[in-house]
Design a protein that fits this description.
Order of helices and strands: HHHEHEHEEHEHHHEE
CATH topology: Rossmann fold
Strand order of the largest sheet: 3-2-1-4-5-7-6
Strand content: 15-25%
Helix content: 40-55%
Number of strands: 7
Oligomer: single chain
CATH architecture: 3-Layer(aba) Sandwich
CATH superfamily: Vaccinia Virus protein VP39
Bound molecules: S-adenosylmethionine
Number of helices: 9
Length: about 240
């Protein structure tokens, strides 16, 4: 089944992705726990450990959604701007921050491809499970490079390709068959979760994505698989 995202014009893809996240915003956090068996929490902990934000550092958490990465970084004393194209996701994030008493975050509606921020203003740029939803990924990487200071670092956490033979087949069957059904029952939106699975399958593998990061200007790029590559962490320096 193709949800048809690649066959449409770029503006149409951006609009459809917008509607997917607007539809699932309220159930987004619950769905993450259900679909990953809670593992996404460990991946995010691991990611923020790698980012290692220090007190006072300015970090842009792009496609920050409901705040999972931003909250972890704010707890370490970073000054975090949570940016996302979707106001419904940001609204859920603001509510969660208020409930948890997390203060000092900036919330900003932004398209990762064309940021309104000045150049060279951030010490770090993070994007977790966001970049595969962006229509023009090279443009988003160039913008990440632009808004970082020299000496700043780019970090990305994203689904990738599992390279463990048997596990890869099990994971494939699970994502194709189970995830859309759970989406149907819990988020009442099978189509949205069909899209999410498809977008994971279409995303470039680790080495191709690493090359894209270098192409945007980043140096000393790294790629690290988690769970055999179900998820991967990438980074690069602006130097
Ligand atoms: N980073 C959060 C996390 O790890 O839980 C949210 C990830 S969520 C799977 C993906 C987010 O990307 C959504 O909130 C969506 O609105 C956002 N997004 C999609 N396309 C975008 C774009 N072009 N610019 C900015 N955000 C975008």
């Amino acid at each position: 089944v193709s949800y048809g995202f690649q066959e449409v014009a770029p503006e149409e893809k951006t609009r459809r992705v917008g509607s997917v996240f607007a539809r699932v915003a309220a159930r987004y956090d619950l769905m993450n726990d259900l679909m990953s068996g809670g593992l996404h929490r460990l991946w995010k902990d691991d990611f923020v450990r790698a980012v290692n934000p220090r007190g006072g550092e300015r970090i842009l958490d792009m496609a920050g959604g409901t705040g999972d990465i931003a909250f972890r970084m704010a707890k370490r004393g970073a000054q975090v701007t949570v940016a996302d194209i979707n106001p419904a996701m940001l609204d859920v994030g603001k509510e969660r921050a208020a409930k948890r008493g997390i203060e000092g975050l900036d919330w900003s509606e932004q398209n990762a491809e064309v940021l309104s921020f000045e150049s060279a203003g951030f010490d770090g740029y993070t994007i977790a499970f966001g970049i595969r939803n962006v229509t023009d990924i090279p443009a988003a990487l160039r913008e990440a490079y632009r808004v970082l200071k020299f000496g700043g670092r780019f970090f990305c956490l994203e689904f990738s390709r599992c390279e463990w033979p048997v596990f890869a087949d099990v994971y494939d069957a699970y994502s194709m068959n189970v995830v859309p059904k759970v989406g149907k029952v819990v988020a009442r939106d099978e189509e949205a979760y069909q899209y999410l699975v498809e977008s994971i399958r279409r995303f470039p593998d680790m080495s191709a994505f690493r090359s894209m990061i270098a192409e945007a200007g980043f140096a000393q790029t790294t790629a690290r698989p988690i769970l055999g590559g179900v998820v991967a962490m990438h980074s690069g320096w602006k130097i």
